[in-house]
Design brief:
Low-confidence stretches: none
Shape: elongated
CATH superfamily of the largest domain: Spore Coat Polysaccharide Biosynthesis Protein SpsA, Chain A
Bound molecules: magnesium ion
Length: 376
Amino acid sequence: MTVAAIIVAAGRGTRMGGGEPKQWRALAGRPVLAHAVAGLRAAGVAPIVLVLHPDDIGRADVPAGCALVPGADSRDGSVRAGLAALAVDPPAHVLIHDGARPFPGQAMVARLIAALETHPGAAPALPVTDALWRGAAGLVAGVQDRSGLFRAQTPQAFRYGAITAAHAAHPGGAADDVEVARAAGLDVAIVEGDEDNLKLTYPADFDRAERILKGRGMDIRIGNGFDVHAFCDGDHVWLCGVAVPHGRGLLGHSDADVGMHALTDAIYGALGLGDIGVHFPPSDPQWKGAPSRIFLAHAMEQVAARGYRLANCDVTLICERPKVGPHQAAMRAALAAIMGVEDTRISVKATTSERLGFTGREEGIAAMATAALVAA
Ligand code: MG
């Protein structure tokens, strides 16, 4: 079931001061909007449509991997543009989020999606806990009953067909998508929101967002991989993306690049996504003789799709021969090109097993790898 998101970030609101619209202000080194994208991705939401001011579409700091749509003059016009961009391949559900809220939490998103099983719409909110007063001329003029009052948040979640029809029927001018849905007669469930899911409006909100990020610490994920391939007849072996001349080949269903297989499994492992065999079954003839870079590139796509990036990886090849040292730089460069990272994040090294065991008897090559991922 596809759950897509539309992040509305076309506004020019500058109440934060500093000139830059708040969704583009840097928070821990990247735009507020990039945090929102990473948060939704980490919750498994894809695809993500960004509705941007036309002047912002060419910015260098636009979060990668999102569909970009120019916004309209009004908020609801921008949402309709985002819904239209999803029409070619309609998702089951769509989350409509405000680009100035950098922390849409995974648990809250899961609650919203679950609520759509029983309601056409669901929106996060928190009960009002402070006392509410009416004021006039600087004086307390009365007490407002707070029972039944909620502070509304985004993302607001809807069945895609229902909210698209509701927007098409609405005359315009709605404050948010819940208002549009209710005007069309759709029930919208109130789902527990998240105190950290703040909307950045004033400079003090920004300070609080920085404190929230610091309090979370680093989200680090580690995976390991191990692989073995036996020698067979041949005149070269593929190791970490480089064809190394050798008096033997390596036996395998694909190109038998044992180092790249160990590395790919380390990345899948860090994400909890099993191993290469799950994603590219050896029983499937289409992968026979396949270049292993397909597997590694797929694993890296999963990293980005889940809101992570590679911090570093380390591959150890275990063999008596061929000698790996002369090819180490080319291997790091080949892996860097496939993975889309700098080669300083990649290590390839080799060891013998002192002539012991199957690698020592030169029956095959073994490889082990570690990969570390951090939140993007
Ligand atoms: Mg293998």
